[in-house]
From TrEMBL, chains A, B:
Ribosomal protein listed as a keyword: no
Alphabetical keyword list: Oxidoreductase
Alphabetical list of PANTHER family matching this protein: OXIDOREDUCTASE P1, PUTATIVE, EXPRESSED-RELATED, PROSTAGLANDIN REDUCTASE
Keyword Oxidoreductase: yes
Protein name in UniProt: Enoyl reductase (ER) domain-containing protein
GO MF terms held by the record: oxidoreductase activity
Subunit-level organization: Homodimer.
Ranges of residues in domain Enoyl reductase (ER): 27-348
Provenance organism: Urochloa decumbens
Length: 353, 353
C-alpha cells in the first residue's frame, strides 16, 4: 500500500549516471556511479506508482543509441539518456511498495527501470508481473524478456522459417543469437552461427546445438566462410551485427531469402557507418531485408512466454548468462558488449532478493 | 502452318550482336550491326516453333547485367549474352509462320526475342498473343508489357499502398517510374518523383500528374530535397536507381515504410558499387527493403493487363515513349538509358507491320 502516513524510510540508492553524451566508442568514463538516497515508499499523492527494488539489470547493445545525442525528428527506439541522470533499461525487480492495484508488495516484475538500486515507476502499465517464479528470475532479462521476444518475433514473424531452411545467425552466442539458433533447430532448419572467439564458436556448436559455426575474427574472407558452411546459400540471415558480415551474407542469400535486420552492433560506435555494397543483389534474388525492432511485437508476449517456458522446461532451449555482481560493475559490463567480452546474455546482479 | 515443302524464302536479317563482354560503362562499340539472312519459314522438322518478325524492341536497363560475364553460381535474372550472338529482350512482333497451334500467321505477340529483324522462337510458350490491338502495339514493350507489370506488381504487391501514403519514385519519367506514379495517384497516395533534367521534372508534374518532383542532378543535397518535398517522410520508396538516392531516401522513411528495390541503374556500370550507409535506420523504423523482380509475378499478367487497359482507356494512365527508328539505332538507344538521354519508355521501331 502507498506509504502515506508512515515513517518515510529511506535507503542508499547507488546509480549509474550518464556523464556526457557519447560519440564513437563508449567508455566507462562516460558513466559514473553516484550515491543517492531513495525513499522506500510510494509518495502519498500517487494513485498508481510502484516502488521497485532492482534485482537484475539487463545490458543490451541497443542502449548505445540512447547514449548519443540525437537531433529532433530522428526516429529512435527510445529517447536519449539525459546527462546527469541514471541510464535505463529492462530489469527484473521486486515490488516493495505499490499504489497500483495490480502490483502487490513482494511481487516480482520485469520492465523498464533506471540503472539504480530502487526506482519509483510512475507508469507501471509497462511492468509485467512474473508468474513463472520456478525459473531463474534473471531469465526475464533475457530468454523470457525482451531479447527472447526479439529472437522469437524476429525469427518467426519476419524470418518466417520453413522446415529445411538454411539459417545464418551472427553474434550467435549473444542474448538474442543463442535463442534464434535454438528456435531455428526447433523449426527444422539447418543453422550456422558466427561469433568472435573460438570459445564462443565451441559453445554455439555444443551447448546451443547449432549445426556449424565460425569465428569471424579469424576468418580472412567472410564470404568464403559462408560458402564453406552454407554451400547452398542462406534462406534466413538473422543479422545482429551489420557491416562486413551483412555484406558477405547478402552475396549468399538464396532466391526469396529474408534478412532480419535486428541489430548492427559493428556499426553503433562508428561516426560514419560502413557502406553496404552488395545490396543490389537483393533485386535478382527477390530478397527481403526487413528492419526489426521488438516494439511492434509486444502484443505477442503472452503467447511467446508460454511457448518459451515450455521449451526451457523440456530442455529444447538452454541459456547462457554472463552475470556480473553489483551495480558498480554495470558500466564495464555495458562497454564489454561492444568488444564482445561477454559470453552469453550480459546482466548485472544488483541484489538477489 | 509450318513451311515444310514450300520454297525456302529468305530475307535480310540485321542483328545487333554483342562484340565483347562489358565491364564498367557500356558503349556502342560493345555491339555491332551484322547483316545476316533469315529463313522466313519454320523448319519442317519443328512441331512447335514460331517465326516472328520483330516490330518493336524494348530497351531496358536490366539488359546491362546480361552484357557482363558472370561467374558460375551468380544469381542473375537471365543468362549472360553470348559474344557474337544477338542481344535479346522483350519485343512486340508479328507471326509470319507458325508450327504452334496457339499462334497463327498474322497474330501479334509479345515476349522475348533476339535483337534482329526476324527470330525463330523455339519455345513459344513464353509468347503472349496480343488481343487489345486497338491500343498502340508498342505499348506491349512498356505499359502493357514487362515494365508495366513491374510497376504494377512492385508497387501493389511489395509496396502495398494505403490511401494517404506518401510515395517517392526515382527515375520517375522512365518506363517503370511513370507508371508507378500514376498508380500511386489512383491508389490515393501523395507522390513525388525525381529525374535527371528539368524537362523530365516538368513532364512528371504535368503529363504524369505527380504532386511534386525534383531534378536530382541540380539538387546539392538529396536529403534536403526529400525533406522539402516530403516533410512528413516517405511510406513507400519505389527505387529504380539505388546509390545516393536510396541512401538519402532511407533517412526519410517513416515507421513501417517499404522500399521496393526494383532497379539500381546508378550502380550497373560501377565496378565497385557505392556503399549504402544508412541501412541501419531500417531497424528503429521497422522498414522493409524488398528486392523485386518481375519474374515472380508473371502469373498476375492477365489481371494486370485487364486493369491497365481500363486505366489507359479512361485516361487515368498516360504514356510517354521515346522511340527510335531502325534496328541500327538500337545500340545508341540502349547506351542512352545509362546517361538518362531517353525521355520516357525507350524502344526501337524495327518495322511497323
Amino acid at each position: 500500500m502507498a506509504g502515506g502516513g508512515e515513517e518515510a524510510a529511506t535507503a542508499r540508492n547507488k546509480k549509474v549516471v550518464l556523464r556526457r553524451h557519447v560519440t564513437g566508442f563508449p567508455t566507462e568514463e562516460d558513466m559514473e556511479i553516484v550515491d543517492d538516497t531513495a525513499a522506500l515508499h510510494v509518495p502519498a499523492v500517487s494513485t498508481a506508482a510502484v516502488l521497485v527494488k532492482n534485482l537484475y539489470l539487463s545490458c543490451d547493445p541497443w542502449m548505445r543509441g540512447r547514449m548519443s545525442k540525437h537531433d529532433d525528428g530522428d526516429v529512435v527506439p527510445a529517447p536519449d539518456f539525459v546527462v546527469g541522470e541514471a541510464l535505463a533499461n529492462f530489469m527484473v525487480g521486486k515490488v516493495i511498495d505499490s499504489a497500483h492495484p495490480e502490483f502487490k508488495v513482494g511481487d516480482h516484475v520485469w520492465g523498464t527501470s533506471g540503472w539504480e538500486e530502487y526506482t519509483l515507476i510512475t507508469q507501471p502499465e509497462s511492468l509485467i508481473r512474473i508468474k513463472n517464479t520456478q525459473l531463474p528470475l534473471s531469465y526475464y532479462t533475457g530468454v523470457l524478456g525482451m531479447p527472447g521476444l526479439t529472437a522469437y518475433a524476429g525469427f518467426m514473424e519476419v524470418g518466417r522459417p520453413k522446415r529445411g531452411d538454411s539459417v545464418f545467425v551472427s553474434a550467435a552466442s549473444g542474448a538474442v543469437g543463442q535463442i534464434v539458433g535454438q528456435l531455428a533447430k526447433i523449426a527444422g532448419c539447418y543453422v550456422v552461427g558466427s561469433a568472435g572467439s573460438d570459445e564462443k564458436v565451441h559453445l554455439i556448436k555444443t551447448k546451443f546445438g547449432f549445426d556449424d559455426a565460425f569465428n569471424y575474427k579469424s576468418e580472412t574472407d567472410l564470404s568464403a566462410a559462408l560458402k564453406r558452411c552454407l554451400p547452398d546459400g542462406i534462406d534466413i540471415y538473422f543479422d545482429n551485427v551489420g557491416g562486413a558480415t551483412l555484406d558477405a551474407a547478402l552475396l549468399h542469400m538464396r532466391k526469396g531469402g529474408r534478412v532480419v535486420a535486428c541489430g548492427m552492433i559493428s556499426q553503433y560506435n562508428l561516426e560514419q557507418p560502413d557502406g553496404v555494397r552488395n545490396l543490389m543483389t537483393i533485386i535478382p534474388k527477390a530478397v527481403r531485408v526487413e528492419g526489426f525492432n521488438v516494439g511492434g511485437y509486444v502484443h505477442m508476449y503472452a503467447r511467446f512466454e508460454e511457448e518459451m517456458v515450455e521449451y526451457i522446461k523440456e530442455g529444447k532451449v538452454v541459456i547462457m548468462e554472463d552475470a556480473v555482481e553489483g551495480i558498480e560493475s554495470a558500466p564495464a559490463a555495458l562497454i564489454g558488449l561492444f568488444s564482445g567480452r561477454n559470453v552469453g546474455k550480459q546482466l548485472v546482479v544488483v541484489a538477489r532478493e
